[in-house]
Amino acid sequence: MEHIVEERPPYDPELVALLEAAFAELVGRYGAEGRSRVKVGARYFVVLDGGRHAVGCGALQTFGPGSEHPGDAELKRMYVAPQARGRGFARAVLAALEKAARAAGHPALRLSTGHRQPEAIALYESSGYARTDPWGKYVNEPSTYCYAKVLEDEIRLVLQ
C-alpha cells in the first residue's frame, strides 16, 4: 500500500499533536534531556493513514551558511504514532523527506538520533544512512548518533 505524504504548515493541528506526542515519548526515553522543544525553521511533512488522519511526521531543516555542513539538510522531528508503527509509515515519510531534499538541491541529508531509539537507528541504517562524526551541539553528546546520506550520488546515478 502506498502511503500519502503531505507537506503541512508548522501550526497544523494534526502535526502539532504528533510533535507533542513525539516530545512526550522522548521524555519517557531520556528523562529531562528529552524535553527540548526548540522550534525549528523547517518544512514539515505528515503521512496519512488511509488518506484520512496524520499518523506520522518529519521535517527538513537547511544547514545555513557558516555551519559545518552548508547546503545540506537535516532530518528532524521523525515520529510515528505507536498504533501506526510497523506499517511502513516511517519509511514513507523518510522517502518524502529525501525527495524534497533532492528537489531543493541539497547534496546530503543528515540526522541525529539517540542511543535509546533502536528502531530509528535500524530504519536509518537500512535506508542507506551511514554513521558520521558528530557535529554542532552533538559533538560532546556520546548518547547521540549522527548519520548522513549523500543525495547527489543518487541524482547522478539516475541521470547516467
TrEMBL record:
Keywords: Acyltransferase, Transferase. Residues 2-152 form the N-acetyltransferase domain. It comes from the Bacteria. InterPro entries: Acyl_CoA_acyltransferase, Bact_Acetyltransf, GNAT_dom. The keyword Magnesium does not apply. This is GNAT superfamily N-acetyltransferase.
